[in-house]
């Protein structure tokens, strides 16, 4: 794998200069060339071919696009007709008024000729009408003169008839009117008599009704008086009845009182008798009881002393039971409170107010916390364009909890401690103002810490400051506190990025009953038996006499009286009132009227005049005519499949054709002296002059330095235009063929047509089609003022990350030799959604390349975990996987494709090629569905240390794009062993006496921080030479400061024995010291870890002793150096021979036997011990 040299936008890239030169000599000396120089702007996409950034449109291109559809000037020619001229002269002689209007322009010769023919018909028609009008006037005037005499004779005859008829009608009407007047007078007299009779009858009925009403009113008054008298009698009878009832109730009550007094007297007598009897019987019983008690006393006194010891023993058992219950309640309450406190959640949140805009970037702040209150605040520093550094503040919120009786928890914040602030610079500060001040401010506005800097230097400072808070918050079960602000952070820069530390608690406990602890019992005091004295027996009592009460007699109760009945008054009935009569209607007489007869005179029949036509002067309008042409032009763009791609997203590098179409020249035109097409092609479009000339042979192509293309009609084409000017003629189409050279390209193209005649020139501008290539940054849409025509388009950037077995990114972190490296690589297709690509582009294929570091990664260990599209499809079987050991092993097609794409994998790499590019394009590329590769590798065994790099490429339709380089570091795993004397000095290759103690120092490997794995094993294994070294003891010390996940810091030099398990096998001499798994699980990846073990042995035999040890870290064995010591044979003392006494020999054997047995016993205990702390 080969890394790119230049870093930009988070990706490593290589800059290249491409010279793209093409040209052809046409019509003399015509050359078209496009050259990209190294100092030109580079695309924002991580491209490996065609990397030039498209320049904005020129002023000429923009101006022409703004004139789209515009026309200027026109092509005109006159049209005449001699026959029409003769007809106009004749019409004027006949009397027709002939006028001439403005010249009329037509858009075709046929239309102009039709206009002249129509004018000819109009002139002839007017001439005929003028002649006809003159003849008709003369005939009408002669006929009207004869009609005048006929009408005078008819008038005299009719006047005589009308005079006689009027006199006869007048006499008849006067006789009829006299007869009608007499009849009407009789009818009026009869009506008056009838009306007088009806009125008298109506008034008599009204008088009778008023009389009956008055009589009924008197009846009502008499009835009211009778009712009042009856009511008074009823009330008097009712009062007498109630008085008798009350007397009866009074007697009943008096008798009840008598019965009550009699009952009380009887009860008192009964009570007195019962009391006297009870006292008598009680005295008898008491005498018997005293006698029985005395007997019992005598018996109990005899057994009291014997039972005293048993009673004391029982009391002691009860005390012990109560004490056990008390201790159990104390323990239960402690465990309940501990559980309550463990169920409280504590969190710290950073509420950051940052800058979020495209000009100054996005500033963020985050916070992480641990259960003990330790926290980390992280923020970035942006100079308005990029991130220049990262800051980290560490500290701790000091707090504790108190469990309450009602199941609630009181959270108490005591103080906040600030430990360190560190700043890591990652880029140069490009801001003009570099005065950065990182400040910590209390909620009261007091400054706790201030650190001015310019953002370009990495530093770390210890704060060691504590501020007092002293806040308490009561939490009922499942209750939470609101956010509690503790302090604020500021950087006082261009835009003050500041944040607040917000603390929150949540009580996750259910409501629990309060555990009541009983009072602690007091030990019992042993009791002694005391003899009970006997009681005195009283004398026998006298039997009492019965007491009798004096009772009162009850009174006689009268009978209940009969309830009175209410009387009913005698009421008179009122008379009925007749209904009010209707008012009479006035009778009107039927009077007749006389209608006189009217004489209608007759009228003479008048013969009308014939109409004399008016004298008409016909006017006609004639006009000269001409032919005008405004031929239009249209531009379109197609791909190699001849598909219209106007407004579409198309592949970079694809071949497109701009088609320039002009409307036909019409008949009636003047000679065409020049016909020219001017097209300022967009930047990034590489014109294929040869293909263009082949498709457009009738045109002469020239270009200028700005890339503007001029296409002029050849001489033969002009002659063809002018050969038959009375006929329409087609203009040959122009096809400009070329390819697109830019990512994120926007290609607008407009052309204009200039037609020249002897009278002038005519210009028309075409429409403006547009096409796009993918690779646009979504933060800068193609059309900021309106809709984005490519809404799914963004940068083309394959990405890769490395993850652990939990799916967490470990990019940039260290790994171990036996680590499995799992890479997630994304083949970026989302920007292609909705694309229109020709078959020619699609068949160049889709390739993903994984270029790993040959020296570090074992390519043969690859495991393809999955290859999936963004919609979840498994596309593994749609791709052909190739393990490429060298590009030379590829077939010519793939080798040429990789070379053309510009990617540069070196050595071994893997590539996945779409088997069916067309189907793959339709199913995933055109839908914008990214492909994610989940790949796992192992490291080569011979790779011991260094960086492990991996990069990805993607080839899309012939275009190459490089991804980011994922880097991991393999540190060298090395350990060391020393042998020390009792003073701690090295005695490597030294001498050790028998019986001396030596210490083997097993120096462990320091596991680095910022690693990509959890620590699951850290074990020292030492194969001691047990025939010469007798294991005595060991210890293990931390070699670095260790920070646990809860924030606890174990300082360097701390004895870690409590976190380990040690095993020693006396039979083999194998010594193992391993750290417990639960302890290693508490060491986060952000903390270093290292330890040295010290093994103390006692030399028990002479000879050379060599020793080495192996450290196991997560299954990786690391062997140390070998240490050697020498033990000489001890000098043999000269012992004089003693007398051979049997008893002495037996005694010596016995002593040696005892010492040997003791030594073996000690060795067994030491050899088999296993410490677990």
Automatic annotation (TrEMBL):
Keywords: Cell wall, Coiled coil, Membrane, Peptidoglycan-anchor, Secreted, Signal, Transmembrane, Transmembrane helix. Residues 533-542 have a biased composition (Pro residues). Residues 1141-1173 form the Gram-positive cocci surface proteins LPxTG domain. The keyword Coiled coil applies. Residues 516-584, 766-794, 1118-1143 are annotated as: Disordered. Residues 1118-1127 have a biased composition (Polar residues). Residues 1-38 form the signal peptide. Residues 543-555 have a biased composition (Basic and acidic residues). Residues 195-307 form a coiled coil. The chain crosses the membrane at residues 1149-1168. The keyword Acyltransferase does not apply. NCBIfam families: isopep_sspB_C2, LPXTG_anchor, strep_RK_lipo. This is LPXTG cell wall anchor domain-containing protein.
């Amino acid at each position: 794998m080969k890394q790119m040299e230049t870093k930009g936008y988070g990706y490593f890239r290589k800059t290249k200069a491409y010279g793209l030169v093409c040209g052809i000599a046409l019509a003399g000396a015509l050359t078209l060339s496009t050259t990209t120089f190294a100092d030109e702007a580079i695309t924002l996409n991580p491209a490996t071919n065609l990397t030039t950034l498209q320049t904005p449109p020129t002023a000429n291109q923009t101006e022409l696009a703004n004139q789209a559809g515009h026309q200027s000037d026109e092509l005109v020619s006159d049209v005449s007709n001699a026959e029409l001229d003769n007809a106009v002269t004749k019409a004027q002689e006949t009397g027709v008024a002939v006028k001439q209007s403005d010249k009329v322009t037509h858009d075709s010769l046929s239309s102009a000729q039709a206009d002249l023919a129509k004018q000819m018909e109009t002139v002839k028609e007017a001439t005929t009408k003028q002649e006809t009008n003159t003849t008709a006037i003369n005939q009408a005037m002669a006929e009207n003169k004869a009609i005048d005499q006929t009408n005078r004779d008819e008038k005299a005859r009719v006047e005589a008839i009308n005079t006689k008829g009027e006199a006869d009608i007048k006499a008849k009407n006067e006789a009829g009117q006299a007869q009608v007047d007499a009849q009407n007078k009789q009818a009026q007299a009869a009506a008056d008599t009838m009306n007088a009779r009806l009125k008298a009858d109506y008034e008599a009925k009204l008088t009778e009704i008023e009389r009956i009403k008055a009589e009924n009113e008197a009846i009502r008054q008499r009835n009211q008086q009778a009712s009042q008298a009856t009511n008074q009698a009823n009330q008097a009878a009712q009062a007498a009845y109630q008085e008798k009832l009350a007397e009866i109730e009074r007697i009943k009550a008096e008798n009840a009182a008598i019965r009550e007094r009699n009952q009380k007297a009887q009860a008192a007598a009964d009570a007195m008798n019962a009391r006297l009897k009870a006292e008598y019987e009680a005295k008898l019983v008491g005498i018997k009881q005293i006698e029985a008690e005395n007997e019992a006393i005598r018996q109990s006194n005899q057994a009291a002393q014997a039972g005293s010891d048993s009673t004391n023993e029982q009391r002691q058992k009860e005390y012990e039971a109560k004490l056990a219950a008390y201790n159990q309640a104390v323990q239960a309450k402690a465990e309940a409170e501990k559980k309550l406190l463990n169920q409280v959640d504590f969190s710290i949140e950073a509420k950051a107010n940052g800058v979020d805009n495209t000009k100054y970037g996005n500033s963020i702040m985050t916070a992480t916390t641990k259960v003990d209150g330790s926290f980390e605040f992280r923020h970035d520093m942006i100079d308005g364009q990029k991130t220049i550094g990262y800051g980290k503040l560490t500290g701790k919120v000091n707090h504790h909890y108190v469990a309450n009786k009602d199941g609630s928890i009181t959270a108490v914040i005591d103080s906040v401690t600030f430990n360190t602030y560190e700043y890591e610079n990652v880029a140069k500060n490009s801001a003009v103002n570099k005065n950065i001040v990182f400040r910590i401010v209390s909620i009261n506005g007091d400054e706790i810490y201030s650190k001015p800097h310019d953002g370009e230097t990495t530093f770390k400072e210890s704060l060691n400051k504590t501020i007092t808070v002293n806040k308490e918050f009561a939490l009922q079960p499942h209750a939470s506190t609101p956010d509690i602000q503790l302090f604020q952070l500021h950087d006082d820069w261009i835009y003050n990025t500041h944040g607040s530390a917000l603390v929150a608690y949540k009580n996750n406990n259910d409501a629990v009953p309060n555990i009541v602890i009983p009072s602690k019992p007091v030990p019992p005091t042993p009791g002694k038996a005391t003899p009970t004295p006997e009681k005195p027996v009283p004398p026998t009592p006298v039997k009492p006499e019965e007491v009798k009460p004096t009772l009162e007699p009850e009174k006689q109760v009268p009978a209940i009286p009969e309830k009175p009945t209410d009387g009913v008054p005698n009421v008179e009935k009122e008379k009925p009132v007749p209904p009010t009569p209707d008012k009479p209607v006035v009778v009107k007489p039927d009077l007749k009227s006389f209608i006189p007869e009217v004489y209608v005179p007759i009228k003479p029949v008048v013969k009308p005049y014939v109409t004399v036509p008016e004298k008409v002067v016909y006017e006609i309008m004639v006009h000269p005519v001409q032919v005008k042409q405004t031929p239009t032009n249209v531009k379109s763009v197609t791909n190699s499949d001849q598909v219209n791609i106007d407004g579409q997203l198309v592949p970079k590098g694809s071949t497109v054709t701009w088609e320039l179409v002009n409307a036909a020249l019409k008949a009636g035109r003047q000679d065409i002296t020049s016909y020219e097409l001017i097209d300022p092609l967009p930047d990034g479009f590489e014109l294929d002059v040869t293909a263009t000339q082949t498709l457009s042979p009738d045109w002469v192509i020239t270009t200028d330095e700005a890339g503007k293309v001029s296409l002029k009609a050849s001489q033969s084409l002009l002659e063809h235009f002018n050969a038959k000017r009375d006929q329409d003629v087609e203009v040959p189409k122009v096809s400009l063929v070329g390819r697109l050279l830019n990512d994120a390209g926007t290609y607008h193209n407009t052309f204009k047509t200039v037609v020249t005649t002897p009278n002038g020139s005519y210009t028309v501008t075409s429409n403006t089609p547009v096409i796009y290539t993918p690779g646009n940054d979504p933060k800068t849409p193609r059309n900021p003022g309106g809709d984005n025509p490519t809404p799914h388009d963004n940068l083309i950037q394959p990405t890769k990350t490395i993850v652990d077995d939990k799916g967490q990114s470990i990019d940039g972190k260290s790994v171990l030799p036996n680590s499995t490296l799992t890479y997630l690589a994304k083949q970026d297709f989302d920007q292609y959604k909705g694309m229109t690509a020709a078959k020619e582009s699609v068949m160049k294929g889709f390739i993903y390349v994984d270029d790993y570091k040959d020296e570090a990664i074992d390519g043969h260990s690859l495991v393809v975990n999955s290859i999936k599209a963004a919609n979840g499809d498994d596309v593994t079987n749609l791709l052909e996987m190739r393990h490429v050991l060298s590009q030379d092993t590829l077939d010519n097609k793939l080798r040429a494709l990789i070379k053309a794409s510009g990617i540069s994998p070196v050595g071994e790499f893997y590539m996945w090629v779409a088997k069916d590019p067309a189907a793959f394009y339709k199913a995933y590329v055109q839908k914008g569905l990214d492909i994610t590769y989940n790949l796992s590798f192992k490291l080569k065994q011979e790779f011991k240390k260094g960086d492990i790099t991996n990069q990805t490429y993607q080839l899309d339709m012939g275009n190459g794009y490089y991804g980011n380089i994922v880097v991991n570091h393999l540190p060298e795993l090395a350990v060391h062993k020393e042998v020390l004397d009792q003073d701690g000095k090295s005695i490597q290759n030294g001498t050790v006496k028998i019986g001396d103690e030596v210490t083997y120092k097993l120096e462990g490997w320091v596991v680095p921080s910022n690693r990509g794995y959890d620590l699951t094993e850290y074990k020292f294994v030492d194969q001691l030479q047990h025939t010469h070294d007798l294991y005595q003891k060991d210890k293990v010390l931390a070699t670095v400061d260790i920070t646990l996940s809860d924030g606890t810091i174990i300082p360097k030099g701390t004895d870690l024995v409590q976190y380990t398990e040690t095993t020693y096998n006396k039979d083999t001499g194998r010594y193992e010291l391993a750290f417990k798994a639960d302890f290693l699980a508490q060491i986060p990846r952000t903390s270093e870890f290292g330890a040295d073990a010290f093994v103390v042995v006692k030399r028990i035999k002479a000879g050379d002793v060599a020793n080495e040890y192996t450290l196991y870290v997560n299954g990786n064995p690391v062997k140390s150096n070998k240490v050697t010591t020498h033990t000489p044979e001890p000098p043999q003392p000269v012992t004089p021979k003693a007398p051979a006494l049997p008893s002495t020999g037996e005694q010596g054997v016995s002593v040696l036997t005892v010492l040997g047995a003791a030594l073996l016993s000690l060795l067994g205990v030491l050899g088999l011990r296993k410490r677990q702390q």
